[in-house]
Amino acid sequence: MVVVPRARVDEIIAHAQETPLAETCGILGGRDGHVERVYRAKNVAQTPRTRYEMDPRDIVRISDDIDDAGLELVGFYHSHTHTEARPSPTDVAIWPGQWYPEAICFICTLMEPEYPAVRAFRIDDAGNVTEEELNIEG
């Protein structure tokens, strides 16, 4: 189970809603399965409506900030502009599990714009996807 304050979930949703026709992405920092910070990253994918690719400079900057703050990388998030909050085959294929084996995949869907939702998943080395219980506090 991962614990996320309502304010952090709202940050992820707000980020997605700012560009509803392009996927957004970022990194979540925290401690012991509790998300404390949302770090936005730039999506540099060639087709941002259906794909995300974090700017490598943002990954380095955010990783340094997480380390400097004494936090851990809890997971990565991105949005889906028109599909459900579940990892797509592309999401599974590009998942950086070999570098971040404990990271959780968070997805915000805008499929129903008036009802955005965030879900969390674990993706293992074999590409198996398991939904992670998400405890939203506050």
What is the CATH architecture annotation? Answer: 3-Layer(aba) Sandwich
Query: Which class of secondary structure composition applies to the elements?
Result: alpha/beta
Please report the total strand number as a whole number: 8
Give the radius of gyration. Answer: 14 Å
N- to C-terminal distance? 16 Å
> Could you name the CATH class?
Alpha Beta
Mean pLDDT: 96
Oligomer: single chain
Low-confidence stretches: none
Number of helices: 3
User: If you consult CATH, what is the topology?
Assistant: Cytidine Deaminase, domain 2
What is the string of helix and strand elements? EHEEHEHEEEE
Kindly describe this structure.
There is one protein chain. The strands form two sheets. A six-stranded mixed β-sheet has the order 3-2-4-5-6-7, sandwiched between helices. Strands 1-8 form a two-stranded parallel sheet. It has three helices and eight strands, in the order E-H-E-E-H-E-H-E-E-E-E. It has a single domain (2-137), classed as Cytidine Deaminase, domain 2 (3-Layer(aba) Sandwich). It has helices spanning 6-18, 56-68, 89-94, and strands at residues 2-5, 25-31, 34-41, 72-80, 104-109, 117-123, 129-132, 134-137. The longest helix has 13 residues, at 6-18. The model has no long low-confidence stretch (mean pLDDT 96). The chain is α/β, with parallel strands linked by helices and 138 residues long. The radius of gyration is 14 Å and the shape is globular. 23% of the residues lie in helices and 36% in strands.
Give a brief rundown of this model.
The protein is 23% helix and 36% strand.
